[in-house]
């Protein structure tokens, strides 16, 4: 893929799923890659696969919720490679549970990883991206950043917040005349470990929810997702939709506006939420 040769790209949550596929696709496209994750085993697999294809890779354990560590990490990556061009704020977790039965800590945890992780990564790397003269911030939201469904309030909140943050940043970079492009990614169902790694409110069986996700919702491979993301980055798209499901949902939301809220609950909650 053109446009990535010689670029330095940072991918969080690179030990599994979309992050792993992104790191490998970036490496194949000629980028130097800084990968990180809390899952050091998964990260080692990604590192080996990158080294096997001759990619210059820096691999570190990083928890995206640890702001001070993230700031130090950004400086270390810039020093290691001499510049940083792109950050893919991809690390994320999922949680299922109605608001009524979710604990504050469950909602806070999702916000910490899925929203504050993105803010930490963006703020830590922004000065380096600006000084590279050719930067790109790529923040991973979700289709659940476009519409809300029952049982996903924590995840919906974090992913809507990522969209707001990212869309504001894109406009700010343009207004300031900074050489930094900004894209927000909205995947539909991707065949990754996200649901298997997810937690759920008391009374719900995360194993059953994961089975339902894997069987009914996950339709796009992580490799295809990575390809679509890099194509969107190359075209400097503001919004990158992944999968036919994501494109279809976006059209429905545009057509129905807020009325989707009376349309979705029966259909979508049967698929993704607690059984009712
Ligand atoms: N799979 C889907 O259907 C789907 C749909 C929409 C959005 N997304 C988003 O895509 C992104 C990637 O998810 P995935 O589907 O590849 O899931 P995944 O579970 O396969 O990968 C997520 C990775 O993030 C890492 N991670 C979790 N918490 C972390 C933390 N605090 N610090 C650093 N790393 C952490 C995990 O260890 C894991 O390796 C997430 O932001 C997710 O919300 C996924």
TrEMBL record:
A GO term, aspect molecular function: oxidoreductase activity
Keywords per UniProt: Oxidoreductase
Entry keyword annotation includes Oxidoreductase: yes
Keyword Transferase: no
Stored PROSITE patterns: ADH_SHORT
Superkingdom of this protein's organism: Bacteria
Boundaries of every Ketoreductase domain copy: 7-193
Stored InterPro entries: KR_dom (IPR057326), NAD(P)-bd_dom_sf (IPR036291), Sc_DH/Rdtase_CS (IPR020904), SDR_fam (IPR002347)
Family membership noted in the UniProt record: Belongs to the short-chain dehydrogenases/reductases (SDR) family.
PANTHER family, A to Z: OXIDOREDUCTASE SADH-RELATED (PTHR43391:SF82), RETINOL DEHYDROGENASE-RELATED (PTHR43391)
Protein name: Acetoin dehydrogenase
Native source species: Mycolicibacterium poriferae
UniProt lineage: Bacteria, Bacillati, Actinomycetota, Actinomycetes, Mycobacteriales
């Amino acid at each position: 893929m053109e446009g990535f040769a010689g670029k330095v790209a940072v991918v969080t949550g690179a030990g599994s799923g979309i992050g792993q596929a992104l790191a490998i696709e970036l490496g194949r496209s000629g980028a130097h890659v800084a990968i990180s994750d809390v899952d050091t085993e998964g990260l080692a697999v990604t590192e080996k696969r990158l080294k096997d294809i001759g990619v210059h890779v820096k691999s570190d354990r990083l928890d995206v919720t640890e702001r001070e560590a993230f700031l130090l990490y950004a400086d270390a990556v810039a020093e290691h490679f001499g510049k940083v061009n792109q950050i893919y704020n991809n690390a994320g977790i999922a949680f299922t549970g109605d608001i009524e039965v979710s604990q504050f800590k469950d909602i806070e945890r999702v916000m910490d990883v899925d929203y504050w992780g993105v803010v930490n990564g963006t703020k830590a790397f922004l000065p380096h991206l600006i000084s590279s003269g050719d930067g790109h911030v790529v923040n991973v939201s979700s289709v659940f950043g476009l519409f809300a469904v029952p049982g996903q309030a924590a995840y919906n909140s974090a992913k809507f917040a990522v969209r707001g943050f990212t869309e504001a940043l894109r406009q700010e970079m343009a207004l300031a005349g900074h050489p930094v492009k900004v894209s927000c990614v909205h995947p539909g169902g991707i065949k990754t470990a996200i649901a298997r790694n997810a937690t759920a409110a008391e009374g719900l069986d995360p194993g059953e929810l994961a089975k339902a996700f894997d069987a009914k919702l996950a339709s796009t491979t992580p490799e295809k997702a990575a390809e679509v993301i890099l194509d969107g980055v190359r075209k400097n798209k503001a919004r990158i939709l992944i999968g036919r499901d994501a494109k279809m949902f976006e059209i429905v939301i545009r057509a129905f506006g807020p009325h989707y809220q009376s349309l979705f609950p029966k259909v979508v909650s049967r698929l993704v939420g607690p059984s009712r």
